[in-house]
Amino acid sequence: MTEIEASAREEIDTEAGTGRVSWYEAGRPGFVLAVSHGAGGGVEARDLRALAAVLPAHGVTVALVEQPWRVAGKKLAPAPRTLDVGWRGLWPALAKPGLPVIAGGRSAGARVACRTAAELGAAAVLALSFPLHPPGRPEKSRADELLGAGVPTLVVQGGNDPFGRPEEFPDGAYGLVEVPYGDHGFAVPKRAPLGQDEALTVITEGVVEWIASLR
Fold this sequence. Notes:
Helix content: 25-40%
Radius of gyration: 16 Å
Order of helices and strands: EEEHEHHEHEHEEH
């Protein structure tokens, strides 16, 4: 997967601290995909980097969003309420280009996007590795957050994700793309019949097709 450099970076003050947005701009964009990281990593995640590299050629400007706790160098994410505060504070910068904004995130970031989509006026939600439940605790379902997003939603989920395999997801008004053999970070085993680059292509092609359906 080809790496590209951000066209611009900006730091934005929020009530939760200073966040950061790295822009990967399309030539003639129709959407902004604003996508944040999870609780255990940053915007260097393989799926986020792949989207930033591929989507601009398809008319989608990608904004990789770093939550204030991550920018501050902390190792542990704060409570969900604080994550929502940071996301809300960053939203005006994400909406500034005047384009429809798809709220996205991976893992904890996907939960934030779902919880805040309707109030912020998001055009849609992209939920990467949505943590349907804690590993080994299917009774602790977070399906209500996903089902309550209130806007068109796409889930992209690894086939072996311990936070919720695709077949565990409830019926609902959302799309689901399965990344075969992928774990919570979309890593695939070396013995799997598809390679890591192929797994990332499943993600990017699925997202490109879904965004085209929103136009």
